[in-house]
Amino acid sequence: MKIEAMFSFNSMIKNSIMAFLVLNSFFIFGQEFQLAFPIIKTQNCIFEDSMKVALELDIPGVKLYYALDGSEPNEQSMLYRKPFSIKEDVVLKIKAFHEDFISSETKSLEFINKGNKIHFKELTIESYIPNEYKANGSYTLFDNNRGSLNHRDGKWIATKGSDLTIEIVTKEKISEGELIVGLLKKSGSWIFGPQEIVVSGYNDATNEFQLVQSENIDPILELDPAQMQFAKIPFHSDFSTSKFKIEMKKTEILPDWHPGDSGNTWIFVDEIIIK
Amino acid sequence: MNRRNFVKKTAAFSAGTLSLFNLPFIGNRNEFKDIIIGHGNFQYTIDLHWGSLNAQHVPVKDCHEMVQDSQGRIILLTNHTKNNVIIYDKSGKLLETWGTEYPGAHGLTLKNEGGEDFLYICDNNLHEMIKTDIKGRVIYRIPYPVETGVYEAKEKYVPTESAIASNGDIYIADGYGQQYIMQYNQKGELIRFFGGRGEGEEHFDNAHGVTIDTRSGKEELLITARNQNKLKRFTLDGKLIEVIDLPGAYICRAVVHKKEVYLATIWSGDRSPNTGFISILDENNKLVSAPCGNVPTYENGKLNNMYQTLKVFQHPHDVCVDEDENLYIAQWNSGNVYPIKLNRV
User: Fold this and answer.
1) Which residues of chain A make contact with B227, given a CB cutoff of 8 A?
2) pLDDT of the residue at A136
3) What are the Cα distances from residue B275, in Å, to A80, A188, B314?
4) Interface confidence (ipTM) of the complex
5) Which of B52, B250, B266, B310 would best serve as a mutation to test chain A binding (most A beta carbons within 10 A)?
6) CA A186 to CA A193: how far, in whole Å?
7) What is the model's pLDDT at position A7?
8) CATH number of B41-344: 1.10.260.40, 3.40.640.10, 2.60.290.11, 2.120.10.30?
C-alpha cells in the first residue's frame, strides 16, 4: 500500500514536471509571430487628378483593412478587395490581419493632389548640402517624386546641424496659399526634421523679405517609427509677391530619450509644393 | 516531503503563468499549427530555440556568420569577446567555445586543406583577416593592404568576408571600407585588387560578402553589393561576368550548396529595421524561395520587388546549410538572439 502510494506520487511528480516543461516551452518558444507591414503600391503619392492604389501582403489568408479618414484601421474598417483611386488629399492607413498571426503595425502614406498648384519659375537651395544628399539638386524638390524611408535613396535633400533655407520664385504673384513640405523623420538616424518652418515673402514696396507665416512642427516622439510626412502651412499676407523664402529651422535640442548628445540633427526634405 | 507540500510548491512555482493542473489546456496544444515558411521546393518549419544557450555563461552580441565543419559541427562567429566562436552539434547542443580577441568578428569562412579544417575570420575592428585552425590557434594574419596604395590608414579598411579558391588564393571583401576585393596568393602576397566604389556595375556599394561558386564546373566569385540589392558574378581574376538583380533584398553573402545559393537578407523593401528574410536562388540564379518574404515573381525576366511578410527574423546576417538542407540563421542586431534553425519540409 505504501509502496503503491509512493509509486503514484513519483509518477505524479514526473507528470507534473513534464507538464511544467511542456507549458513552459510552450510559453517561451511557442511564440506567435507578427505580420510584417503591408505594402502600398502606387506610382506616386503626389498627383494631379487621381491616383490608383493597390495594397498587398503576400500571405495566404491575410485581410487588409484600411481607412482614409485618418483613423486607425481595425476589422470594422474598409476591407481591401481591389485597387482603388484616390482623388483628394488623404492619409491612407492600412493594417494587416490574419487568424494565425498577430496583426501588423499600421502603415500610412499621405497623398497630395497638386492639381491646383502654383507653378515655380525658380527654386534655389541657399544652404550647404553635403555631397551624398544633393540628389538631383533643386529639381528634386519639385519633381513629384517622393523619397522613401531609406534616406540614402538619392531622393532626399538634407542638411546636417544647420537650417535649410530655400528661395522660390513663382510664375504668378500670390498673397495666399498653402505651403506643403515633404519631410522625413527618423530618430535612429538623427533625422529630426525642422522644429519650425518660417515663410517670408519679398515685399516690392519695402524691398525686403517680410515674415508671412511661421509654424512649429510637432517634435518626433520616442516610440515613433521612421516616417514620411507632409507639413502643411497655410499662409496669407497683405501684399502679393512671387518671391518666397522658406527657412526650415533645425531641431536645436535633442530630446532626453535620444542617445545623441550634440545638436547635429538632420533635416531631410524631398518635395515642396505651394497650392 | 508530502503530497500537500508538493502541490503547494508547484503551484507557487507556476504562479503567474498557468496552473499545472489545467490539463485541458495541454490537450489543446494540437490546435497550434506549425508555421511553414518559404516557397516551392524550399519550405521550412521554424525552430526558434535550436541554439539557445545560457547567456550568463555563453553570451552572444551580433551573431554574424555560421559554417559547418567536416565533422558536421555548426560553428558560429559572434563579436562577443567572451567567446567569439561557439561550436554546436547539429541538435543545437553546445560543444565548445573559444576566442576572446576578435572584437569585430564578422566574416567566417571554412576551408578544408589537406584533410584539416581551417577558419578565416575577418575582423571589422582589427582591420585584418586571421587564419586559425579549428581549435583557434592563429596560423597567420593578413593585415590591411597598404601595398595597394589606396589606403591612407588601416582604419579605412574594414574587411567583412573572405573566400578561398582551390589553388589557395584568398579573396577578401572590404565591404565596410573602400569596397575593393583583394586577391592574395597562398603566401599572402597581393596579386590584384578590383571593384571599389564607382558608377559602373563592376563597382560596389557595400561589397559585404564574397564566395567561391563551383556550380558551373569552374570556379567563379559571387560578390554581394548589398546596398545595390545585387549579386555580382566575377571571374577569379576580377572580371565581371553577370549581375543578378534582387530588388528589395539586402543580401549579406552567398552560400553555395548543391545547385542553390542561399543568402541571408538583412533588410528588405525600403530598408526599414527588422525587415529581413532569407533568399534562395536556383541553378539559374533565379529567386525561387523567400522564407518570410513574398512569393518571388518575375515579369519580363525581372524580379518584382521583394519585401518581408512575416516577422520571424529581424536582421538575418548569414545562412548555414547542412547536408539535409536544414538552415541555421545567424542574426545581427537582433537582441542578442542565438541562431534560429529552419527544418526543411
Assistant:
1) 152
2) 87
3) 23, 15, 6
4) 0.87
5) B310
6) 8
7) 43
8) 2.120.10.30
